[in-house]
Amino acid sequence: MDDNRYTKRTIKKEEVPSSRLNETRHARIYLPPGYNELLSYPVLYCQDGEDFFNFGRLATQMTKLVLDEGVEPAIIVGVDVDKAVRTEEYSPDGSRFNAYCRFFAEELVPYIQERYPARRDSGSRIIAGDSLGGTVSLHIALDYPELFRRVIALSGAFFAGTRERIASENDLSWLQLYMLVGLQETDVSTSRGTYDFLEENRRTHELLEAREADLVYEEKDGKHVWGFWQQELPAALRLFLD
């Protein structure tokens, strides 16, 4: 995968102003092979942008899929996060959660659409995250279905608050969701305690299934680490971009 064809790519840095967060947020913008401003592209929006690019090797993986497998080229937007306030922004009970969700939907998406040839239908946007990043991604989709209906959740931190949010919906047949969790994620230490992510994902899966969400749910050998998620990212990308 270290072939020069895969590592030669265009990644831009953007400073996205936010009145919701009262700050400027850094975003990495990946432009796919053959990028042409006269065309239009689906867009993959990612939480934990730095981690998705560095540890998930997302740019290299996308380039490889486009060049070798004919997957549709997509723009990737990775939003960086200050790890010191990550839980406050990504957790439903966090002090910055509502402001962050509003920034993402009401400021980031329009910012990208003004500057890049991004398709504007909800079927051409994907929102992705790992752990609590998966949590906030699902909540944004539930709160802004006109923007997002396709979600990639890598070992999502789907706890009681998220299940309550799902339970408030009667029909989620419009929602397309890729859920991955590791069979070894039964004792995961977090800043808020130790959790059985496998059981939490199973419970959340049942709720989503009962509301007829369009689900691809996978349990595989793996721990709560990027080494696991990186290997499974191509399957998630193929699901929505093939």
UniProtKB/TrEMBL annotation:
Keywords: Hydrolase. SUPFAM superfamilies: alpha/beta-Hydrolases. The keyword Cell membrane does not apply. The keyword Hydrolase applies. It comes from the Bacteria. Signal peptide: none annotated. One of its GO terms (molecular function) is hydrolase activity. This is Alpha/beta hydrolase.
